[in-house]
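Protein in question kept in full:
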Amino acid sequence: MFKRMLKSYDYSLICAIILLCSFGLVMVYSSSMITAVSRYGVSSDYFFKRQLFAFIAGSVLFIIMAVFPYKVLAHQKFQKVMLLASLLALCALFVFGHVAGNAQSWFKIGGIAIQPGEFVKLAIILYLAAVYAKKQSYIDQLLTGIAPPVIVTVLICALIAIQPDLGTAMIIGLIALCVILCSGFSGRTLLRLVVMAGIVMLLVSPLIYLNWDSIFTPVRLSRFESLENPFKYASTSGLQIVNSYYAIGSGGFFGLGLGESIQKYGYLPESHTDFIMAVISEELGIFGVLFVILLLAFVVLKGFYIARKCEDPFGSLLAIGISSMIAIQSFINLGGVSGLIPITGVTLPFISYGGSSLLLLLTSAGILVNVSMHVKYTEKKKKREPVLPKESKRRQAEKTVYL
């Protein structure tokens, strides 16, 4: 049985994840070595070592989740503990949280920064997948089937938004929306949800109007202004986008060569986190960019394919949630780097520097690999079962009833 399970793992998916993380480690070192020395006064491999540690820890979690039966995660007691821990962690940030990037979103323990919001993404996916998998028999009942998980999701998004970390709150909301839309309810229920959402927006709009200045601060509005014409604000809000354009343009088709980026010499802020793709483009050209995008696309499409093949509602929704998370984060990051959407501070999955993000992604990827293994193992098991003719099946059934 163990050998059959080993043969059922999707090694192409595992290899794609390993390639992304390995490439990310190389690019984190290349993009951060100047920043580490000149800006933070530490050794050139400081960020690389921290990312390597996160990769090793994440790999252990990846292996555990790839082997651990994913169906256990749907247990009601686990769900309650996970939700309670998420809510307590988010509330504790307002008392013990560390401020970074204008948001009180971090716990700092012994020099290690942990962002609970990253792990809440997976918690929401697990929660929604488990709840909606159990509600399949009455999924079209709005008040008992759809509404309760939506209320919990909105509460968690609100706690993250007031840190304020609108980027993470938006991502969690979009991930939840993908899982909810794929939960199996009918078109009529979808129409009722749209109407209900419209009514809620009308009720909330006066509150938004009254708190307009606190929600849409000058810093947030400047991101939209710089999006329209970044060169006009090249010394202020458009600094990152303009230097990102310079990096992408100077890289051209073949790139300047690994480690040869000019923009990482203090011109491009956050070159090893949010804007690491700009450095990849500058150093490795279009080939480096396509390498990353194609691998990310492969992981996402593979995840949706696994969701489609999985007969277990919980496993299917898990695969949809995890794939959606990777796709949404990739789109937001690449959109910000290329100037298609405002900058939100979202990292590029598996590539950008960020220990919390890498731990979350590798844990999620382990669950996805686990679901894939169970799908493939079930298919092989069905093929091994002897197919009886219709007459034999009828006689076998009559014999069973008689006995």
